[in-house]
Amino acid sequence: CTGTEVHLAACPLEYSKPNSTSFCLGGMPAVVSCMPGPLFLQNSSLKKKVKVSTNVRLKGGSKLGEGRVEVLKDRDWGTVCDDRWNLQSASVVCRELGFGTAKEALTGARIGQGIGPIHMNEVKCVGHERSIWMCPYKNITAEDCQHTEDAAVRCNVPYMGLENSIRITGGRTHYEGRVELLIPDSNGTQRWGLICGETWTTKEATVACRQLGLGYANQGLQETWYWDSSNVTQMVLSGVRCTGEEMSLSHCQHHKTVSCQKSAAKFAAGVICSETASDLVLNAPLVQQTVYIEDRPLHMLYCAAEEDCLSKSAAKANWPYGHRRLLRFSSEIRNIGRADFKPKAGRHSWVWHACHGHYHSMDIFTHYDLLNANGTKVAEGHKASFCLEDTDCQEGVSKRYECANFGEQGITVGCWDLYRHDIDCQWIDITDVKPGNYIFQVRGGVLVRTLDFLIYRPQTS
């Protein structure tokens, strides 16, 4: 081998002849010693010695070691164009992230489209480089590439057998069910048990679906009484808290001893997994371009108060006199995933709000938080799904969702939903916030985006 091949079969070699009585004269069986990547190291002291790449990442993949390739340049994450994308270049990315060689070099945005800049085109790695940034590449011009050509990888990863200690039971399909874990008891024998559903969210469900090899988490369920199909009734894990990036539920935080207020089996955690998923991202530049402060009279805020869109101190105001100071902005949420985003509740359960004259398909679609330098929340707002629809779409994509006439709500892949700055509740009530530097955070499902803001009040004479 030259060392640049992605697997041994690509190296020149000689097969031993069939029926040969002697082979490999003067030689011994080859032995290798591999260095595990940071994700697979058990020894915490070794983890500190192994450098983890901070300027390359994989996004959008459902399994460990797969995803859209994104690189960091000038503090801005961007994608890689798939022109000339091959196994050699993909293997450099995989090794840089602590995996093996590349199993597949994917083109045509097979694992979803990115958003923002495209930093690299025509990457030409030899195969021995330590980073994709060491490979020759071309800079992007506007005509070169679109996000429909984003490159992705599937890496070879060590077989961990993690799927052998988890199963789901009782579901209508093999993609859903109550989560059961195989753990050793005090006698050392293995037994199946349930997970307390009290702290169970989409993040924990994401890890469970990944461990099961069933793709993405569509829902994390805190009650599974309708999936009671096995004889397993005992809770063996509680207080599970995951970041969503873990390989296994055993890698997440949890109680040392089981503590579950609702210990009946019907309150065990469950999941609904899916091979594809939506991926919502915030158009951050639009927030920065449209943000402004407005002093809005209280007599114009009755509906907003009914929707709970003002801070608590508004209840003590002298209605209808006075005003509230609002940080207003437009919010554009794009779906760059591989499945449409739709409210989990069907139209029959949507709630009519007479004040604004619309249905709510979700209680809260996005949270708006204002944090101080220490990360403490000082003000907040939220956006209920007044109307979740395809405001506009990229070229070649047709709109599917429209709110008019009690229509279906959702966001199609390749489309975006725009809430303009002049719509009620599209704000944070900052009446009680002192001037200073703050962090503005937008959260919706697993979407989190933060921006820095300076809030000031003009000097008055």
UniProtKB/TrEMBL annotation:
Reactions it catalyzes: L-lysyl-[protein] + O2 + H2O = (S)-2-amino-6-oxohexanoyl-[protein] + H2O2 + NH4(+)
Residue span, SRCR domain: 1-35, 56-156, 166-274
A single GO molecular function term of this UniProt record: copper ion binding
Alphabetized UniProt keyword annotations: Copper, Disulfide bond, Glycoprotein, LTQ, Metal-binding, Oxidoreductase, Repeat, Secreted, Signal, TPQ
Pfam families in the record: Lysyl_oxidase, SRCR
Cystines in this chain: 1-11, 81-145, 94-155, 125-135, 242-252
Biological function: Mediates the post-translational oxidative deamination of lysine residues on target proteins leading to the formation of deaminated lysine (allysine).
Protein name per Swiss-Prot or TrEMBL: Lysyl oxidase homolog
Species whose genome carries this gene: Oryzias sinensis
Lineage, highest ranks first: Eukaryota, Metazoa, Chordata, Craniata, Vertebrata
